[in-house]
Amino acid sequence: MTQVGNVYGQALYSLVKDEGLSAVVLEELKVLKKSFSEEPEFVRLLAAANLSKEERCQILDDSFRGKIQPYVLNFLKILTEKGYIRQFFQCCETFESQFNLDHGILPVKAVTAIPLTKEQTEKLTKKLSGITGKTVIIENQVDADCIGGVRLDFDGKRLDDTVAHRLEAIGGLLKNTVL
User: Least C-beta-crowded within 10 Å: which of 72, 100, 151, 178?
Assistant: First the structure.
């Protein structure tokens, strides 16, 4: 994560938290992040050096005024004016991380060979919530290379109980075995 993303994302979070708007702004940032990912040309337009800052900010006004929180619109304008609009995604990550920290939310990526069922997701969520004492939100990612089992990535940690990981461990033991 970049320093700019951390500083600006944290600044926005502090501002809207004091106003009681952090949840609303988080949802708007998620929508914008998805939209900007799907239309990267829009971000390039906002970063275009051949347009003046006023023109780029006018594009933001025309696109978003009255549709998003004024704090978010002004945030986008500041990033655009400072030439940091390409750091928007990192700002969103910092904002969301701070929101999760303040609200006791633990996002967990569960990597499995096949999609988890609703029941499996609920059971895993309940178990992890009991262990961590936090509200767990599971994002299931399918990776056929796992073969079976589950790998959990959260809070900078990885718990790997996949068949592929076990086979690698056995392979390592066999490789180091002297007969």
Answer: 178
Rounded to 10 deg, the angle between the 88-103 and 70-82 helix axes is 140
Strand partners, 161: 150
Q: What is the pLDDT of residues 70-109, one digit of tens each?
A: 999 999 999 999 999 999 999 999 999 999 999 999 999 9
What is the pTM assigned to this prediction?
A: 0.81
| Whether residues 86 and 46 fall in one domain | yes
DSSP string, 89-158: HHHHHHHHHHHHHHHTEEEEEEEESSPPPHHHHHHHHHHHHHHHSSEEEEEEEE-GGG-SEEEEEETTEE
